[in-house]
């Protein structure tokens, strides 16, 4: 990775290392205390649409979003999205009234999920989850990420030399494809994860304790996702009844076996 990529990674890490704070947390949810997933989804989509998309030269990257892409193996293609969770007051390092967001990355092929809480929707937060969690995990599994799909908004899109997210993907040699409005089916894995987090994690966690910081909330979220990826059974897809991590490891092993078989197959020679 070049010096520019290292600079972006350093800035992302600096933003992530927030000193731990604690205090009573006041949280206001758009759908009330009983978090209505449908109302939260509409709120998140409305907030996302308020970010004006940036014009892009050429059509090569945007045209990819019109094709229903089938990843050859888990880890090859990921979807990333950020969502508004709730408004908070006295939350960790937020002295006054602020907003809580969650950055999500999902592998559509196996539903393996990553999530990180943050205080804003920014390019550095989008980079941080990839740099600190997603890429290291797939590197340990021996799988390479070929592409990441996002919507066309300011935290994900910009000019290559100066935009942190674009520069990070380019330095990591990851293709960036854009999802246009109306392509809800391609964003569905992240939307489903967001609904699950709202129903099964955030509501219960804020009821369990009123003293939180970004660090303590992220620690609890990591434990939830660990159980989610290792124990939660996938109900849809071509192989229902498996866990996300099980599907990932099985898919990676199948891809390696297929590659080995193709290398061992003698090439046919024309007579």
Structural features, described:
The protein is of the alpha/beta class and 271 residues long. It has one domain (3-31, 71-260): Nucleotidyltransferase, domain 5. The chain has helices spanning 3-16, 37-49, 60-63, 123-140, 164-171, 184-208, 214-231, 244-264; strands spanning 26-28, 77-91, 94-107, 112-118, 147-151, 175-179. Strands 1, 2, 3, 4, 5 and 6 form a 6-stranded mixed beta sheet that branches. The radius of gyration is 20 Å and the shape is globular. The termini are far apart. Residues 12-25 and 31-70 have low confidence and may be disordered.
Question: What's a quick, concise take on this entry?
Answer:
The chain is an alpha/beta fold. It has helices spanning 3-16, 37-49, 60-63, 123-140, 164-171, 184-208, 214-231, 244-264; strands spanning 26-28, 77-91, 94-107, 112-118, 147-151, 175-179. The chain has a single domain (3-31, 71-260), classed as Nucleotidyltransferase, domain 5, CATH 3.30.420.10.
Secondary structure layout:
Blueprint: H1 3-16, E1 26-28, H2 37-49, H3 60-63, E2 77-91, E3 94-107, E4 112-118, H4 123-140, E5 147-151, H5 164-171, E6 175-179, H6 184-208, H7 214-231, H8 244-264
Parallel strand pairs: 2-5, 5-6
Antiparallel strand pairs: 1-2, 2-3, 3-4
Helix pairs in contact: 1-4, 1-5, 2-6
